[in-house]
Amino acid sequence: MSNTVTVYSNPGCGPCMVSKRHLKFLSIEFEEKSANDHPEAIALAIDHGNNPAAPNVEICSQSGELVDIWTEHRKTKILVLAG
Question: What's the pTM?
């Protein structure tokens, strides 16, 4: 059973583009959503001690439980996710 990855990004966001490119390079499947259309995602990231910045990356279990969440491009987090 694998986790689901959701990337909330904004158009023209450099760190967003780098994060998505890194995920694709490592063959990590993810769903992309607009951060502008989902302010609750940024609020959740802030509640977990993150900066209000894009991208916002959420990792959830198949049951929907939040496993990890971060903002900005986090190369080390993506590498851990890749295994």
Answer: 0.91
